[in-house]
Amino acid sequence: MSYDEKADIEFHQGEFERMLEAIAPGRKGDATFSRALDIGGGGGMHSAYLTRIAERVICTDFIDQNARYNGEFVKLLGEKFERNGAPFDVARLEFHAGDAMDMMYRDASFDLVVSFNAFEHIPDPRKAAAEVVRVLKPGGIAYLSFDPIWACDTGSHFFHRVPTPWEHLLVQPADYARRMQEAGAAPDEVDDFMGAMNKVRLDTFRSIFRNTLPRTRKISYQEWRGVADPGHTLHPNYARARALGYTDDDLMVRGICAVFTRTT
Among residues of the chain, what percentage have pLDDT more than 70? Predict the structure, then answer.
């Protein structure tokens, strides 16, 4: 499947608009923040949209995007949005490589902290959540959304290579990686499968986010259930995973969104 640049930008716009509705219901971009942090920002797509509501945006990721793009990451991102009719103020955005579990920022540095589809990768999401609270200003808002988590039908993140639901829960990682290679996966994809998913179960995420984190007030907590294809629930791998001790919630809850504010 070829990459559709415009469709990618529009997809991230939709995620940004859902985030905005969650943190500022009914508004359409008039919420103004002084400093925003995008944790696990990857290619910077959400960060670009954040420049519309924040005076300064920091996009941080474990992978050094500046090194990948010879120091021109933000410039190239700006050009990408410009040629697709969605320009943003590149002067408001900068990228930092860093560890979500041990961030370089001072306490109470940001009045908005967001993360899209990163907490299923961070090795210790509890540490990362504590860091979010630490760098958030009192009265600031955090929006953390991630999907798919490990135990759902496509939680391997490479279902397009091994299109068998829950197979990643049932075979050894090396066997799954071998099947990925046989299906044409590049070495970096195999490396991502072997090391970039935290394999955290639903009950751990619930213990972190469903209850109120210290020094915060919960605004909302949402889980969503489902499978990539309705036929997956009839696949024998569902019963096999249940036999290994995975619950129905483990296998069917695919995403979480936690929204909260720091109180002190």
Answer: 97
Write the single-letter amino acid at 84.
N
Sheet holding 253-262, edge to edge: 93-97, 54-61, 33-39, 110-116, 136-146, 253-262, 216-225
What is the extent of the structural domain holding 210? 5-148+198-227+253-262
| Low pLDDT (below 50) residues in the chain | none
Is 28 within the bounds of a domain?
yes
Regarding beta strands 110-116 and 33-39, do their DSSP bridges make them parallel or antiparallel, or are they unpaired? parallel
Q: Where are the beta strands (DSSP E) in the chain?
A: 33-39, 54-61, 93-97, 110-116, 136-146, 216-225, 253-262
Rounded CA separation 143/115 (Å)? 6
The number of domains in the chain is: 1
Predicted pLDDT at 3: 86
Q: With respect to residue 184, please indicate whether it lies within any of the assigned structural domains.
A: no
Tell me, what amino acid is at 21? E
Whether this model's pTM surpasses 0.90: yes
| Measured distance CA(239)–CA(169) in Å, rounded | 12
Cα separation, 49 vs 221, whole angstroms = 23
Please name the amino acid found at residue 141.
I
The values of phi and psi at residue 57, to 5°, are -125, 130
In a domain? residue 238: no
Name which of 232, 225, 221 is nearest 250 in CA terms. 225
Residue 113 lies in a domain: yes
The CATH number that applies at residue 58 is: 3.40.50.150
Distance CA 65, CA 61 (A): 8
